[in-house]
Amino acid sequence: MERSHLYLMFAAKLLGEPVEDDLVDLTGCNLLALKASLLRKDYDEVTRSFLSRAINEFYENYGYEAKWEPDHIATMLGFMAHLAKDYSKDSLKIQHRFLSVHVLPLLRYAEEVCSGLETLRIIIIEDLIIVERLLGVG
Q1: CA-to-CA distance for 42 and 29, rounded, in angstroms?
Q2: Residue 23: its pLDDT value, please?
Q3: What distance in Å separates the CA atoms of residue 94 and residue 132, rounded to the nearest whole number?
Q4: Residues 6+ apart with CB under 8 A from 72
Q5: Please, what are the averages of pLDDT over each run of 10 residues along the chain (138 residues)?
């Protein structure tokens, strides 16, 4: 499966769309609460209040228009689906940064409220390794 399709599938699932996959079990998860502004405990409250705006500016800088809350994990994965279509060195650097700085830290905290996200985090870590190899840093 193409990397972009994988990210798109997970984004749709996290928006509550019916997706046929046995990888991530979201049973009992409050999908609306999977937002950086709510879950990123590594930032203070003031910083968390600006996350949505800062992340949205990041999207806009790379030609992506968020259709959902910018700091929601589904939107972040949609952005990754957008980026993952491009294997240029510049795009891979952006993907590496976004996964490392935003997606994986959010998933670590999101697992505390939705244990089924552990599998998604592991898959994304593996994808980060692929990006690093493509960049020649891993």
Answers
A1: 22
A2: 83
A3: 11
A4: 14, 34, 35, 36
A5: 93 90 87 96 94 95 93 97 96 97 97 94 97 90
Residue 138: per-residue pLDDT: 64
Buried b (16+ CB within 10 A) or exposed e, 42-64: eeeeeebeebbeebbebbeeeeb
* CA distance readout (Å), 125 to 14, 32, 71, 122: 18, 23, 19, 5
